[in-house]
Amino acid sequence: MGKLRLRNNGFRTSKQERKLVSIREGQRKRYCEEDHHQDLASKSVHADHSYAVTSKRFVPDISNIVHEEVLDNDGNNLTPTDDWRVGRRVVELDVIADHLQQCKHCGLPLSLHNTINIKTYGLGSVLKVLCTNKSCGNINAIPTGKQHDHKIWDVNTKLALAAIDLGLGEHQINGLLSILNIPTVSHCMIDNRIREVGDVIESVADESMEEWTEKEKEMTRESDGNDNVTVSVDAAWQRRGSGRSYDSLTGHCSMIGLKTGKVINYKWRSKACRICQRAEISGNIPRVHKCNKNFTGSAKAMEPDMVVDMVKESRSKGANITAIIGDEDTTTIARLRAKVDPTIVKLSDSNHMKNPLEIVCMSSKQTFNSIT
Ligand SMILES: [Zn+2]
Ligand SMILES: [Zn+2]
């Protein structure tokens, strides 16, 4: 045990004192190094994301925050902002080039350097470009892309299509955009565009189903010599537990022709609608909308309901469905015989009878035949 000495900071042994000094020195060094690394990182981040401030030394410049507004004789705001220089945009070069070709007022070519403002609409934007001719002074609106049906940006519709195709939600889309430093999109915009695209996809699906129903009838006639169409039906739920828990709010079912192997009908059932739910919570009457709620029973009861609906519909359109291939569940065929036709035949699908684990084992056995 060392000798205790009275110092300015209290009683410490010389060993404790040395330890304290070395700890402080270490902390100071680490702090400086960290700051140095942060400085380097912040410089590279700042080059892309102007809002990124990762070091205390990197303070944003706010000296130009107050500036006077410049108005022209007609009261138009000509105060230039640098917003359009920040980050990235999705642009159609062809559209921009055509619009910059000439001023709408005097016909002189425009320059992107004279942009005084930018307005963003989802992924599209409109640049306000001042005419190079000082005596003209016209502010030209330059869109960054094409539009359709009363100013709906093509790029936003395409974004919605990509979201549906890739299964992306608003969070994923905005996550991707913010990393790319492209302005993020609003919930309302993406919702409206998804609805627009959804309607088109539905109409394309209807056309395709009509076409393949005819083909299925034709191929059945050629191979069997009659009009008795056999179809395979299978339902799936948004959520389905490993056991037999059916608590999903939505379910969908497709009907595939045996000869063509193509979908000739599909149906979906939903026990909930967001707009109705929101109105119920707030105690208001829901606004007029295309309601998604089309089912009130249990999730398990969706399958027979959808199959009956599909067989009835396809029969009314001329496809004489006389046999269905499905899983071992007997409710569906019982309901079909009671509600549509008592002579409908049920054929069992061997895939449905196999345990999923058995299927995995069989396929892995084929792939890795040395593993037993
Ligand atoms: Zn001009
Ligand atoms: Zn509703």
UniProtKB/TrEMBL annotation:
<protein>
    <recommendedName>
        <fullName>Mutator-like transposase domain-containing protein</fullName>
    </recommendedName>
</protein>
<feature type="domain" description="Mutator-like transposase">
    <location>
        <begin position="87"/>
        <end position="355"/>
    </location>
</feature>
<dbReference type="InterPro" id="IPR049012">
    <property type="entry name" value="Mutator_transp_dom"/>
</dbReference>
<dbReference type="Pfam" id="PF20700">
    <property type="entry name" value="Mutator"/>
</dbReference>
